[in-house]
Amino acid sequence: MYPPPNGIIRSLQKTTLVICKMAASILERFYMIDDGFFTFNLKYLFFVGLWPEKYLTKYQKFLYKIYEIFLHFLTVVFLVITGIGTYQHKDDITIVLCNIDKSLVIYNFFFKTIIFCIKRDQLRDLIDEIERSGDGVTEEKKKLMAKYVVFLTLISAAVICAFSLVALFEGKMSIETWMPFDPTVNMMSLITSLQILAIIIFPALCRAFAMQGLVCSMLMYLCDQLIHLQSDLRGLKYSKESDTSTRMKFRKIIKKHIRLMGYSKSMEMIFNQYFLIQNLAVTVELCLNAVMVTVVGVEQMSLLITFVVYLAIALINAYIYCYLGNELIIQSQGIALAAYESTWTSWPADLQKNLLIMINASQRPLKLSAGGMALLSIQTFSQALYNGYSIFAVLNDVVN
């Protein structure tokens, strides 16, 4: 195996610099977008090849499809070369477990991307319906989601760069992969191989955070609208003079509640498998990291830090999903309490009956599930951690 030619090295370095500048300009442009609640997320999805715009011409759609397939191909290439690299070091259990642990993150992102692409048309219809509803969202919530997605993207890029620099300083690969040349023959070959890995991995990370941003935005939208409904219910005041206006307000509240229930069911159908993959990935990630801590010695401190950082990022992302899912359950159940706390005792009998129906409906909370097996909640997050540790304990007992 031979080192890569100097021309290829310079080309890769220039390409990396151009990609970094483009990413910075795109993120800066995204941060200024505040037209709608989902505008930022949809633009991000568009730039990472997951959301073809409707206004594209036939030729542009063809080019965009090629771009989308190319980014899929980059992820597949990473999984293939890391699989070969893992097999080449099959006799070293530390390298094998380390490769599996790092590759699991990309497997998680890849399968969620496939699910997202399959459900994309249904998701587009749901978002169009939400945008036509005329529901308002505060500017603070829009900026919050924009900051969140940008923060995750920048942190991930910083983590990749940091681990690549550490690997470069130690004179080895950040993850063992197959390359058409020997990465360890000299420093320039090692730098080139690390740049190739960064270029292959970064699009998959951006896609994952673009999807996560959209899902979290939709959950925040539902929670925000449920809070508004509670406020509207508590603010209903009935009198004979305001009979017509109160009935119209109450009718709007009921219609909006029914609409939000429909949105929640649609989201559950769309993201059912998506959340299942997320839940399984966290469980396996925790189990693998626990195994690695017992296998890797204290002298390999850089490896231990790598596992802890990857695990922390995975747990934070999973917690955000579960927290918002738990918040959806709480706010949807709060509709019943808000209805009871309204001034219903002075209402006519027909309005009281309608309010009772609404209370009964609200006692079945809006929810999202992971494959229909577990609700998306804080309890599920705790259960995933417990399952991961339980699997590790069983494996540890078997090995010992």
UniProtKB/TrEMBL annotation:
The chain crosses the membrane at residues 66-87, 93-111, 148-169, 189-210, 274-297, 303-324. Its main location: membrane. It is a multi-pass membrane protein. Keywords: Cell membrane, Membrane, Olfaction, Receptor, Sensory transduction, Transducer, Transmembrane, Transmembrane helix. It holds the Pfam family 7tm_6. The keyword Cell membrane applies. It is found in: Cell membrane. The keyword Membrane applies. One of its GO terms (cellular component) is plasma membrane. InterPro entries: 7tm6_olfct_rcpt (IPR004117). GO terms for biological process: signal transduction. GO terms for molecular function: odorant binding; olfactory receptor activity. Belongs to the insect chemoreceptor superfamily. Heteromeric odorant receptor channel (TC 1.A.69) family. This is Odorant receptor. It comes from Trichoplusia ni.
